[in-house]
Amino acid sequence: MGNHRTKGQKNIWAKLWKYRYLYLLAFPGMLYFIIFRYVPMYGVVIAFQDFRISKGIWGSEWVGLEQFHKLFTGLSFPSVFRNTVIISLYKLILGFPAPIILALLLNEVKNQRFKKVTQTIVYLPHFISWVILAGLIAMFLHPDSGLINELVKLFNDGKGIDFLVSKKYFRSILVITDIYKGIGWGSIVYIAAISAIDPTVYEAAMVDGANRFKQMWYITLPELKSTIVVMFILNMGGILNAGFEQILLLYNARVYDVADVIDTYVYRNGIMSSNYSMSTAAGLFKSVISMGLIIITNKIAHMLEEDGLW
Amino acid sequence: MKNKKNIYDYIIIFILVLISLVMLYPFWHEMMYSFSDPVDAATGGMFLLPRGFNLKSYWSVLRNKSVWTGFRVSVIVTLTGTVAGVMLSAMLAYPLSKKRMPGRNVLISLIFFTMLFGGGMIPNYLLAKKLKLIDSYGALILPGLLSAWNIFIMKNAFAGIPASLEESARIDGANDLTIFFHIVLPLSKAVLATIALFTAVGYWNDYFSTILYIVSKDRWSLQAVLREILSNAQSAMSASGISVRAEEAISSETVKAATVMVATVPILLVYPFVQKYFIKGVMIGSVKG
Question: What percent of chain A has a predicted confidence (pLDDT) above 70?
Fold first, then answer.
């Protein structure tokens, strides 16, 4: 018996030794993940404390769920949460299908040069930062000199609209500009998936007399299904982000009512007002829901006999 | 019959041309504005061509010292972060592509979990504080250095390299390190270029890290500097509803347009050359493994 075990142990050590260089390669990267991803995960415990930076995590007082209680009964968070959900849903409903439709349209183009040029153009906004785009948007929507308002003035007795301080228009601006930035880049993965479809399938369908719409509907879309499912699951995981940087760069005090989302709330309360524990609680609330959404959508994908994300 | 375009082809082409114009026009509009005379531009009604062509606005952008310091900071951060990030990602991704390595699944699960859950802004900030990274280049580089997503794309690419190549090197007495550096890396240029591009774009466009971690203005990234230029007049006017004297407001508008152009042109110049890589890279990454 004892002999066996030492032999087994020896085998394990021998095996580990055999792969020593691979472990050596992986070590710095794993260390990075431990320090920069797992330590902050442990850091969320301050959501259950009355964290004081002078006392640190080890010295601060534990308060259980008090921070969450304050958060949910407070004045601002319920509306922050509602904004997050509404903005995210708008972006999901309008922004998620947009790249798929673009990819399908591009797939119908036979002229390769035209297709390439179009692709180059639509990918471009992805590479432009939100800082620059926010500047562009502000200039376009400027109440006096902005281009959009030059048009609005024609129909509005010469008066422009200050869109960026208008509660009525702010969310639409977020959704439209989000699609503007993301539609082309988002379409790449679908274009890649379409290009992997076996062309003989289309030829067979053509012989059977399927027209182009039918080919798209009965061949291309079903072939895209698993890609769509994976992208959808990933989208669900990021849904409560609602586009933090975009909002941070575009919003202002006058539209907080409709535009303040969890991340902007965490930033203002946590970083700017040093309200660490309560804003960590808000962030943790978001992360837990996001994780739940990923797990649930992945499960649904499995039920629909799709591979899902894992 | 086959090559003849029917009405649907024209509709599709029309839609795509329309989309392309909508994508490009904002940049054209900025460019035209940036070349215009500040006072002339004030009268509005410009749609296609600049009015009173001049380069005054560019002068005032390029004379701005903080644009240059921001540029320098962003170049340093982007270069360091991209080189280190790609190297470390590849080093981690290669062992993970070896199915027989003991403990592989544990490591993959540990990395995968970071895609599902994270500490969030405040714990990240407190960690940076604890590590004394605040107000240093480290704070701009380290938090975004590695991502699970990039590592999995690389892992899939490495897994696609024929095992026979590595085996023959092993017979010649090469160890895993030699194989990785001398065989695997040179064969993986496409995926390395893709990840380098993703990482570089992330660093170059990063604005929030500066806002979160940096105090001293000489370590502001370019995006933070640009933000200051772009938002100054606009936020002051919009938020308070006061209209500033037309001349000042408008001259700052053409300066803002020039700022947008100065920040966009470098990207426009590099972009066509790297485009083929990222399409290839996304394809490699989309093969599940």
Answer: 97
Residue B55 lies in a domain: no
Q: What's the rounded Cα separation, in Å, for the pair A224 and A219?
A: 9
Interface of A with B in 79-138 (CB under 8 A): 102, 105-106, 108-110, 114, 117-118, 120-125, 127-132, 134-136, 138
B27 part of a folded domain? no
Tokens 């962003």, located at residue: B74
Distance from CA of A25 to the nearest CA of B (A): 5
φ and ψ of A49, to 5 deg: -125, 170
Residue B21 lies in a domain: no
- Is the CB of residue A150 less than 8 Å away from at least one CB of chain B? yes
The span from the CA of A129 to the CA of A35, in Å, is 28
- Residues of A within 8 A of B94 (CB-CB) are 22, 25
Chain A's closest residue to B106, CA to CA, is A30
How far is B214 from B155, CA to CA, in rounded Å?
34
Give contacts of A129 with chain B, Cβ < 8 Å.
204-205, 207, 223, 226, 263
A201-246 pLDDT, tens digit each: 998 998 988 888 899 999 999 999 989 998 999 888 888 888 999 9
- Tell me if B20 and A122 make a contact (CB, 8 A cut-off): yes
Tokens of B156: 């899939």
- Domains contained in chain A, CATH given: 1-64 (no CATH), 66-303 (1.10.3720.10)
Chain A positions touching B257 (Cβ under 8 A) are: 139
CA torsion angle for A165, A148, B252, B43 (degrees, to 10)?
-130
Quick check: ipTM above 0.85? yes
Work out the percent of chain A whose per-residue pLDDT is above 90: 67
**Domain tally for chain B?**
1
Is the separation of the CB atoms in A265 and A282 below 8 Å?
A: yes
Q: Is residue A296 scored above 50 in pLDDT?
A: yes
Residue B270 lies in a domain: yes
CB contact under 8 A, B122 and A105: no
pTM for this model (two decimals): 0.90
* Domain limits for position B272: 66-286
Rounding to the nearest 10 degrees, give the CA dihedral for residues B188, B193, B199, B201: -170
Chain A positions in Cβ-Cβ contact with residue B176 (cut-off 8 Å): 19, 21-22, 25
The domain that contains B92 carries what CATH number? Answer: 1.10.3720.10
pLDDT per position as a tens digit, B132-183 = 999 999 999 999 999 999 999 899 989 989 989 888 898 998 999 999 999 9
